Amino acid sequence: MENGGQVPYPPPPAQAEEPCDVPTQVSGELKKLLVFKVYKRRWFVLLVLCLLNCSNATLWLTFAPVANQSAKFLNVTLDQINWLSLVYMVVAIPLSFVTTWMLDTLGLRITLILGSWLNMAGALLRFLAGTLYNSNLSHRYPLMMTGQTLGALAQPLIIFAPTKLAALWFPDHQRATANMIASMSNPLGLLLANVISPLVAETFGITSLILAYAVPAGIICCLATLGIRSSAPPTPPSASAESSTSEPFVQGIKLLMINKAYLILLLCFGAGIACFTCFSTLLDQILCVTGYSNDFAGLCGALFIVFGIVGAAALGLYVDKTKKFIEVTKINMSFSALACIAFSVVSLLREQNAAVAAVCSLFGFFGFSIYPVAMELSVECSYPVGEATSAGLIFISGQIQSVLYIILLQAFTQPLAESPLSTCGDSVKSWKVSLMVMAGLCSFFTCCFVIFFNTRYKRLEAEEKATYRTKKNYGTNVTEHTLSVNT
């Protein structure tokens, strides 16, 4: 206005909001940069995603902790029981590309609702397999595998969503924390499956176990379908949220393939994910050779997850305040590599329960906590490419390398003629060379990341430039506002 006066920016209809002062002649595009709001319903969307992620993880690992009972119940071999979990990895790799496109093109709401329905359908099919074919056991396993496959189809739709949700619904000072909470709900589900499955199966049987996981899946599906009303809030929480899908999917892929910093992160952090997958998958087989029991191996796996969640919580809060994504990732990857080296040594020693448990805890504390921070870092170094695309390709890299590393490590094992303390049964193998290879791979890619990775925080820079232009053009009275809305 020529007289320098100001008029309040009109609040949204039907909701009383405190207005922030914006000049009347500010363009519509600039208004979006000036006025940011956060909605209380973002916590509900985050809760639904966490519950969905946790439920899908429990479906994934339902039968692994009770493999012998499950094999007897389904009248199949242990190898066939293993495939009920392996199908998740097999399905995830090709479907991941479709999922990244869905999240960045169709939106968060459609993707999460589809994931919740697939998750529920898989849980119901599993329950039917356990109850309808009591007279003909030959039909149980195929139907159970079909249910597991539906759950596997849901996994990428769910596991890729945390970064997108954090970007669309949360302000910059809460993004890393929201990403951490949503991401860590998956290992929490794996932990619950390791605890609940043996307890329920031993006390009530496999049918009750399947029902125990089917009921939450149905409730969560209803919450997602009825409760998530939009992919994004009416007003974005930050400047970057407004353009979170500014690059088309194919163009985004092209930009990522010429982004040196992103490619280093893709390879090095993908290798880190692969090392963690190998550790989780082979832990029991490695420890049993030197006389550690299955119960102790399970305890180490639980400590690995619990300390990982604790580390991720602390690191998420710290990064939200300091924005030191690169420094934190490099430091934690270095400590993770040291923990991996330590594990390759102490796991070969006999009667060192305390040392093995401590190393597993440290490996989880430093390693698990990197995941949500690295996902945020992938967005920062690749902005304005869609969050699901940048984070999704890293997950795909981790899955592909996981398969390759597991095959490689198994190839380096050597049969042992005798092992007096072994609790492995008839098949006893030496994992000494394999552990050295795993520690070497972890150390090599960590060194590559620490030495060569460097990037600007492109998303944070875009937000800062938007705020700077606002203050420069309209003075100190016009500032960025973040309002809490009760919707």
Describe this structure in words.
The chain crosses the membrane at residues 43-63, 83-103, 110-129, 149-169, 181-200, 206-228, 261-283, 295-319, 331-349, 355-379, 391-413, 433-453. It is a multi-pass membrane protein. Residues 1-20 are annotated as: Disordered. It comes from Sphaeramia orbicularis. With 487 residues, the protein is mainly alpha-helical. Helices cover 71% and strands 4% of the residues. It has 18 helices and six strands. The protein has helices at 28-34, 41-60, 67-74, 78-105, 108-131, 140-159, 161-169, 175-203, 206-227, 249-257, 260-288, 294-322, 325-346, 353-368, 370-382, 387-411, 432-452, 458-474; strands spanning 7-8, 21-22, 35-39, 414-415, 429-430, 481-485. The strands form three sheets. It has a two-stranded antiparallel ribbon with strand order 1-2. Helix 8 (175-203) runs antiparallel to helix 15, helix 11 (260-288) packs antiparallel against helix 12 (294-322) and helix 11 packs antiparallel against helix 17. The longest helix has 29 residues, at 175-203. It starts with 6 loop residues before the first strand and ends with a strand. The model is unreliable at 1-33 and 476-487 (pLDDT under 50).
